[in-house]
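Project outcomes to date are best conveyed with an example. Our students and postdoctoral researchers have been running inverse folding experiments weekly, and each run begins with a structure described purely in tokens. The record below, which covers 220 residues, was selected by the lab manager from last quarter's runs and is presented without edits.
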């Protein structure tokens, strides 16, 4: 007699078979299978594991990944303005796009000519900056090449702009060594009842530092 069961923490089914029987186990979605042979006298038992990549009828196949278009941007090794700095990195959602951007994660690190601690702020601006010198748009990568081009624009400043109206969302002091070291990472929407940092058309997210007379090479 052959008793065969499918396991996912507990036995799903057990069936008895006579000798010279071929038994196929559909293993899709299961982590283990157990076959037990008892009271075998004569004959042959063959067990096959069905490794189909698609779920058979009646199986629940759920993709738990996010389904919204997702994008990332990074800049390595740019130099900020010397003097009384304002915004150094911005993410802008232009007016008229009809889109909403939800910021999930911001990370920043950098180096200075001598070790120093720099107060860094993340600001949500409801009116856009004006003036200043931009270094040119950052390349924004789509997590899925089938998604549409991003509606938002990311850039860095080498000369200070006139900042728009805004409110500080996060503030922290960044340890700036002479060689790459510590980072600040802000995650949004990952905690209990958390929510992403939402940008609507005509709004900006700005990374702002506050330090006088220090030139800083920074990755963001």
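After processing, the design step wrote out the following sequence:
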């Amino acid at each position: 007699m052959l008793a065969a069961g499918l396991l996912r923490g507990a036995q799903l089914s057990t069936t008895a078979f006579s000798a010279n029987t071929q038994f196929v186990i559909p293993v899709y979605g299961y982590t283990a299978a157990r076959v037990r042979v008892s009271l075998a006298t004569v004959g042959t038992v063959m067990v096959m594991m069905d490794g189909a990549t698609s779920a058979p009828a009646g199986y629940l196949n759920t993709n738990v990944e996010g389904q919204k278009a997702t994008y990332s941007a990074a800049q390595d090794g740019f130099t900020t303005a010397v003097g009384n700095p304002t915004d150094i990195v911005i993410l802008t959602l232009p007016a008229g796009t009809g889109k909403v951007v939800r910021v999930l994660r911001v990370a920043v690190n950098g180096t200075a000519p001598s070790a120093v601690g720099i107060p860094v702020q993340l600001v949500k601006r409801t009116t856009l900056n004006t003036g200043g010198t931009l270094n040119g748009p950052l390349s924004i990568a789509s997590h899925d090449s089938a998604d549409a081009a991003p509606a938002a624009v990311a850039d860095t400043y080498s000369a200070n702009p006139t900042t728009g109206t805004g409110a500080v969302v996060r503030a922290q002091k960044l340890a700036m060594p002479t060689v790459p070291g510590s980072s600040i990472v802000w995650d949004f929407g990952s905690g209990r009842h958390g929510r992403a940092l939402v940008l609507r058309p005509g709004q900006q997210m700005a990374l702002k530092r506050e330090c006088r007379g220090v030139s800083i090479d920074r990755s963001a």
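Residues 71-219 form one domain. The two ends are 65 Å apart (CA to CA). The training component of this project remains on track.
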